[in-house]
Target: Vacuolar protein sorting-associated protein 26B
Amino acid sequence: MLSKNLDSGLTKASWLKKENGKTVTAALFQSQENIVGEVVIEPIHGKKVEQNGVKIELLGQIELYFDRGNFYDFTSLVRELDVPGELYERKAYSFEFSTVEMPYESYNRVNVRLSYSA
Model:
């Protein structure tokens, strides 16, 4: 099992409606704020997980209506969390993106979608 948690206790949160109609909670961040969280990898009991390194990436992307499926990255930040190896039990990796520059606000309309994701 793999999960990613943003430290929403320090930030505001909002409800978002996904394309499939489901509603999810999303943490809200503003430009120059720290984005802090944790990635958890939990192998099935008694099994091992071979991993090629653990990293998290913060992406800023634009998707245009007439070019669906093609994303244009305008920002990308990566944090290496672990070197390649094997996991036998639950392991949590803390991460932080310090004072992240977000030059644009997230936007989702008919002709364009601009979003940030980790």
Notes: The CA atoms of residues 30 and 102 lie 7 Å apart. The radius of gyration is 16 Å.
